[in-house]
Amino acid sequence: MKLSSSFNSQAQTKMKLSNYLFVFALLFSFLLVTSAHTHEDFLQCLTLHSEKDKPISNIIYTPSNSSYSSALNSYVRNTRFSTPSTPKPRVIVTPLGVSQIQETLYCAQKHRIQVRVRSGGHDYEGLSFVSPEPFVILDMINLRNISIDVENNTAWVQSGATLGELYYWIANKSRTLGFPAGVCQTIGVGGHFSGGGYGTLLRKYGLAADNVLDAHLIDVKGRFLNRKSMGEDLFWAIRGGGGASFGVIVSWKIKLVPVPANVTVFTVRKGLEQNATKILHRWQYVAPNIDRDLFIRVILTGSGSVQYGNRSVHASFNSIYLGGKDKLLPLMQKSFPELGLVSEDCTEMSWIQSILYFTGFQNGQSLEVLLNRSLTVNSYKAKSDYVRQPIPEDALEGIWPSFFEEEAQSSVIILNPYGGRMSEISESATPFPHRAGVIGKIQYLVYWSEEGTAATKKHVRWMRRLYTYMAPYVSNSPREAYINYRDLDIGKNNKGRRTSLRQASIWGTKYFKNNFKRLVFVKTVFDPTNFFRNEQSIPPLSF
Questions:
Q1: Alpha carbon distances (Å) from 531 to 120, 217, 234, 244, 539
Q2: Residue 16: in which H helix or E strand, if any?
Q3: How many other C-beta atoms can be found within 10 angstroms of the C-beta atom of residue 215?
Q4: Active site residues
Q5: CA gap 488, 396 in Å, rounded
Q6: Kind of pairing, strands 154-158 and 146-149?
Q7: In angstroms, rounded to a whole number, what is the distance separating the alpha carbons of residues 126 and 124?
Q8: SS3 at position 408
Q9: Whether the Cβ atoms of residue 538 and residue 519 lie closer than 8 Å to each other
Q10: pLDDT of 159-197, one tens digit each?
Q11: CA neighbor of 104 nearest in space, from 88, 122, 121, 117
Q12: pTM above 0.85?
């Protein structure tokens, strides 16, 4: 009797399992068909609403196109998000103008397909070109016009342009105008400006976002807005709050800043046996307080081989001074004699040549290299911190063993000083809050070329160990982070439109501190249904 019951129970279990598998297979098939229909309906919608003289077929790529892979991967800057298992877009749209962006947004909303906007593809977590939901990429590659107005010291630049292209055309018009943005020439201005954006001029002129005068944006309703029509709240939000949460930013009007005809650069490299630790410790007191015309960052790297036991650590003091070395040398001798700077370390050049210098190009390289949008890519993981109290010497010494680990063969820590203009701008002037009281920002990076999840996990674990070690020595409550150095480890939203404000505030306060609340308010007004979203987008109050 018991044996019979047992057999009956097993049979019932098998039947239930069979039914479950059948329902699951049916549901999976339904989802595939629905997804395919969504994709096809989206394309039909684009075709129906496109202007006759601007056929949509010329600007779209689907997996059936031979050039789809090239269009997708040409601006994937982190191969960690270019694997067979990485979710791929249903469609890539490369608009030539405003109307095609509006059509894309309309059709995506109508057919419930997500949009990710990509300008340069440098998002550290791949959020501009990867999504767990069915999605299309709105790639701004064709929108990169730049118009320089030397007479009024302004420029209009479209979001698909790179920093290198912007610098090239500024230099083409003037030797004594510049712009305070980053040193990597392949970064797209769209993401860079909307997250704050900084470079070697930040102590003199602040961030890129601090020098934005106007912007053209397409909102969730398809309206084409400028600063006046969007209002000051939205204009505030897109200058440091991450533009992808609020709409599609087509172009920016920026204020160009004066630079001398000649600047002075130097790089002084110190090993541990040359008192690198003591000099780095002293740097924390000097770099944020010295003349704002002087920017000295520190790049910490390992050298030698872990395998052969000859690994060492070096600190490179990498600098630009907005003036000649005749003024720089006495300034350094007075304020930072520990570095031992001498005339032979210094090179005078134009500001635009200093961009090439900081990017790593050889002196005398043609400016045409700034127009090159290609980039050798590897897998990498990054994190960021802000320092408000000097890190003790013994804590700095505790960092060095990390560089001796196998995973750190291609790792770097970059310390950028603040102070100067950065300390004068209010925390609430833009969403970027890391201002007065900040000694500097730390960027941690680890690269690897090995393929596979095992290699990724190994290197990410190394990064997390280093980040954990640094916790006592950096900002806290919150532990601040930089939105343009995206890090999903610090928190992320739920999949789909719905995410809790409490959940989003975990990462939001680290990037924006108290400004996160105002960003949520702006989001609620301009995108209440949370159409523009990603794993770290600002949520509306309604969700």
A1: 22, 15, 16, 10, 10
A2: helix 2-49
A3: 25
A4: 485
A5: 26
A6: antiparallel
A7: 6
A8: helix
A9: yes
A10: 999 999 999 999 999 999 999 999 999 999 999 999 999
A11: 117
A12: yes
